Amino acid sequence: MLFKQTSSDYSYLNARVRGMKSALFQNSDFQELIRSKNLQEAVEILKNKHLASYLNNPSHEISLERVEEALRRDLCQITQTLLNSLEGRPKILFETLLLFWDMEAIKTVLRGKFSERDPDEILSSTFPVGRLNEALLKELSGAANVRSVIEILITWKSIFSKSLGKVLSQFEETQNLFILESTLEKDFLNQINQTLQHLSLNELSLRKMMNDLKDIFNARSSLRIRGQELTLDQTLEYYLDKGTHLGKGQFIQIVQSETSESACHLIASILMISEKPKDEVELERILDQRLFKNGMRSFLGDPLGFDLLLGFLFYKIAEVRNIRLILRGKKTNISMGKLEKELLNV
């Protein structure tokens, strides 16, 4: 169902967002970072950009950890500033969009706890843009184990906590982390479907993006359960309806593929991916880049609708992610060619 939304709800906001977008790193800026001789030289480049206020304190020694903290604080401040400037329908949509990154952050923490990663390492892999700010993510990252993470979410009355609590015992019996991840994805989509029941004409790009996201979730799920001894009904419990390309029959076909390679090639064909992935790791990289590309493309959409705000958020997170990759590459001496392949094209 569609309702009329006035362009004035977005016009002032979008003018501000255009200005914020112009201050973000361009591909040429990322190339300058890559060409820097070492981490210290890269940090000097960042000081001349919009991270100056976080990095120019002479009392703080500059380290990779310090720069990553600055990136998280900058990201959190920008999204909170946008959120505080919104009201009415735009605010509801933006809050729902931020919920995606809360879900991704919880996934990251759960994976980190499952693989017994260091709390600082877990925190440095998150994007604090939603309800889960830097302080809350730090507390989650410091939890003792997966159960403790879910118990903290229950204490906070997170919208994800009820469903996670229901499947916690199943996870502990099987040690299958995918049970928790798929539960998070379903919770997120249920929440956003409620918000998207009534959309105006200048908000439809958000629904399209969510349908594309279902394709990505379904592709990942099909690979995760391929080879497991599941009945047809059990298999379809992991399928999400109303994606853009990947239908129910195709989902089953992928799950029943004889090899991982054939499953990856089938997914690439269904999703019209020109690059043929050699394995699941390569496909995951392609799907991840597809998600960001779809999100950033929204910035070129309706100049008087929600599109610019949607696109800007993905551009900003892509910026943080690219800078992280480059700086970590400087520290570990990753080749320039490999770095460029991993970067998101902005």
Structural features:
mainly alpha; single chain; 69% helix; 346 residues; V-type ATP synthase subunit C fold
Characterize this entry briefly.
With 346 residues, this protein is mainly α. It is 69% helix and 0% strand. It has 18 helices and no strands.
Q: In angstroms, what separates the terminal alpha carbons?
A: 33 Å
User: Can you count the helices?
Assistant: 18
Oligomer: single chain
Radius of gyration: 20 Å
Q: What's the SSE pattern? A: HHHHHHHHHHHHHHHHHH
DSSP summary, beta strand count: 0
- Low-pLDDT stretches: 1-6
Mean pLDDT equals 90
Number of domains: 2
Return the structural class: mainly alpha
Judging from the principal axes of the Cα atoms, what is the shape? globular
Indicate the proportion of strand residues: under 5%
Measured as a percent range, the helix fraction is 55-70%
Largest sheet: number of strands, sense, barrel closure: none
Layout of SSEs?
Blueprint: H1 8-22, H2 27-35, H3 39-47, H4 52-55, H5 64-85, H6 88-114, H7 119-123, H8 134-141, H9 146-155, H10 161-174, H11 178-195, H12 204-225, H13 232-236, H14 248-255, H15 260-270, H16 280-297, H17 307-332, H18 336-342
Helix pairs in contact: 1-17, 5-17, 6-11, 9-10, 10-11, 11-12, 12-14, 12-16, 14-15, 16-17
